Amino acid sequence: MCTETTIAHIYQQHSRQVLATLIRLLNDFDLAEEALHDAFASALKQWPAEGMPENPTAWLVSTGRFKAIDKLRKFNREAALPPEIIELEAQEGNTDEPHLADDRLRLIFTCCHPSLSPEAATALTLREICDLSTEEIARAYLTKPATIAQRIVRAKRKIQTAGIPYEVPGKQALPERLPRVLQVVYLIFNEGYHTSGGAELLCQQLAEEAIRLGRLIAELLPEPEVLGLLALMLLQHSRRDARCDAQGDIVLLQDQNRQLWHQNLIAEALTLVPRTLVGRATGPYALQAAIAALHAQASSTEATDWQEIHGLYHVLYSRNPTPVVALNLAVAQAMAGETEQALTTMTQLAENQLTDYCPAHAARAELLLRLGHIREAAASYRRALQLSTQTPERRHLQKRLQECEEK
Amino acid sequence: MKYLCLVYSDEQDLHSLPDSPEDRECAAYAQSLVGSGHLLAGEALQSVNNATTVRVRGGEVHITDGPFAETKEQLAGFYMIDAKDLNEALRIAQGIPPARVGSIEVRPVRQLQVD
Q1: pLDDT above 70 as % of chain A
Q2: 54-83 of B, contacting A, C-beta below 8 A
Q3: Cα A383 to Cα A195, A355, A356, A404, distances in angstroms
Q4: Is residue A295 part of a domain?
Q5: Residue A402's CATH number
Q6: What percent of chain A is predicted at pLDDT more than 90?
Q7: Could you tell me how far CA A59 lies from the centroid of its own chain?
Q8: What is the sign, positive or negative, of the torsion defined by CA atoms of A56, A57, A62, A67?
Q9: Contact A85, A69 (CB under 8 A)
Q10: What pLDDT band is residue A203 in, cutting at 50, 70 and 90?
């Protein structure tokens, strides 16, 4: 018996797959989206009466393709048929299974093409691959739906006009193209984590969409860095319930109730981490995942292997010598016991490259407080407060500042 | 598809850095693109010191010295190419020797609407 519920379920499971294939067959995002909806509308009419076809995905693809060609024909009734339609009709729609899996990767690499800005790529990815509505995306990014809609329209236009191909890059181009895909996924994840400027610290939906994307890419393209990013996201997400207290205030890693960490996510990540460590070629996501894995396996801050974490940050810094990595390296160094050197580095960073970066001042303040330099710590908390835009973070810094002032 | 690859560079860097290309290398690359059937046209340009800008406003012609925009990176040359898609165009652009010291802007060509 095929009911509307069954079809809704198939939509949830397979609509992105069908869309990805229709985009390849029709070579047009908008046309493919309309075709997808027409195909499901037909399914709703036919399947309950005639029964479900043996291969619903293939049926939806071929119905969608047929509807789209039909639409193009009607639209062009007056004029001669343009060559695209003739070509489209002549092609056999290739709907073999291996092709279908490739289509999902094609869609990912097209939405995350480096010639699209990260903002455009994230909006397009959330719309086309995650099937979020423009309203949902706008809510997550605290912006107007019209802004998001325009971003998506422009990105699609660029794909068409600039000739961005619908393809998975070959082995040679993959190392250049994969980082942007991973960056987009991680941007979505982080937006879910620290919804910028907003009051809500955890916007779960985005983080979960990013993990779902990470799982999909890991299934289709199990490169070490893909697995590394997935492991990193799983490990960070495993702490989601411990990151805030009942009042919605931030709880730092060192003060978190580790009983609240989600062990199933940690276990999944720990199976991935060994597959990401490939000697000298180990990438930045894999290194960060390895660091997060050490935290996940420790029963407390004191029991954490800070020496190993410090060493991993060293490797990460040698690959990726940015001021933010330098800051994390200094934090690990302080925890590993080398507090004076760490403080010197932090002071230098907070006064120079990271002078407008809130976490640099917050981290320096923490260390100063630990070392008993109360007045200097208070000054650093004040500077961090000036720079912070998140309400929970501001409350946390305010509380710390108050502690300093009471001492 | 046709793409115009615009070569931009700080004119100082174009010839003075360790990675700066020599004319021989540029000529060889252009020749290889002719060989593969990708190059439609391409030239290197004289320095912007030798540029003259023309504007016509209300029928009046204004001629001024120098380039249109005062920027650090100047247009130093161009390649008009024929490529299958943007990915192929970007692969070709990556090989343009001055990409190592300047930047290559890849722009699809627009058909004029004349009917």
Answers
A1: 91
A2: 83
A3: 21, 9, 9, 14
A4: no
A5: 1.25.40.10
A6: 72
A7: 31
A8: positive
A9: yes
A10: low
Cα–Cα distance measured from residue A19 to residue A61, given in angstroms and rounded to the nearest whole number:
8
A381: which 2 tokens? 């908390």
Chain B residues touching A173 at Cβ < 8 A: 87, 91
* Average pLDDT of chain A, as a whole number: 90
d(CA A118, CA A122): 6
What 3-state class would DSSP assign to A326? helix
**Which helix H or strand E contains A23, and what residues bound it?**
helix A4-26
Instruction: Name the pTM for this structure.
Output: 0.85
Q: Which residues of A99-110 are buried (b: 16+ CB within 10 A; e: fewer)?
A: ebebbbbbbbbb
How confident is the model over A51-76, as a mean pLDDT?
Answer: 91
Report whether A163 contacts B1 (CB < 8 A): yes
Q: Do A102 and A216 belong together in one domain?
A: yes
Do residue B85 and residue A169 have CB atoms under 8 angstroms apart?
no
Question: pLDDT, tens digit, for every residue of B29-51?
Answer: 999 999 999 999 999 999 998 99
Q: What's the number of CA atoms in the CB half-sphere (13 Å) around residue B79?
A: 31
Q: What is the number of CB-based contacts under 8 A between chain A and chain B?
A: 24
State whether A163 and B1 contact (CB < 8 Å). Answer: yes
Whether residue B55 is contained in a domain is answered as yes
Query: Are both A332 and A398 inside the same structural domain?
Result: yes
Q: Is B96 left (phi over 0), alpha (psi -120 to 50) or beta?
A: beta
A304-344: pLDDT as tens digits: 999 999 999 999 999 889 999 999 999 999 999 999 999 99
Q: Kindly state whether residue A290 falls inside one of the protein's structural domains.
A: no
Q: In sequence order, which residues have a C-beta less than 8 Å from that of residue A306 and are 6 or more positions away?
A: A332, A335, A336, A337
Question: Which chain A residue's Cα is nearest to B107?
Answer: A162
* Helix, strand, coil abundance in chain A, percent, nearest 5: 70, 0, 25
| pLDDT value, residue A96 | 60
CA B103 to chain centre: 9
Q: Residues with Cβ < 8 Å from A91, sequence gap 6 or more?
A: A25
B106: nearest Cα among B33, B8, B9, B5: B5
Range of the domain at A41: 4-95
Residue B17 lies in a domain: yes
If residue B44 lies in a helix (H) or strand (E), which one and from where to where?
A: strand B39-44
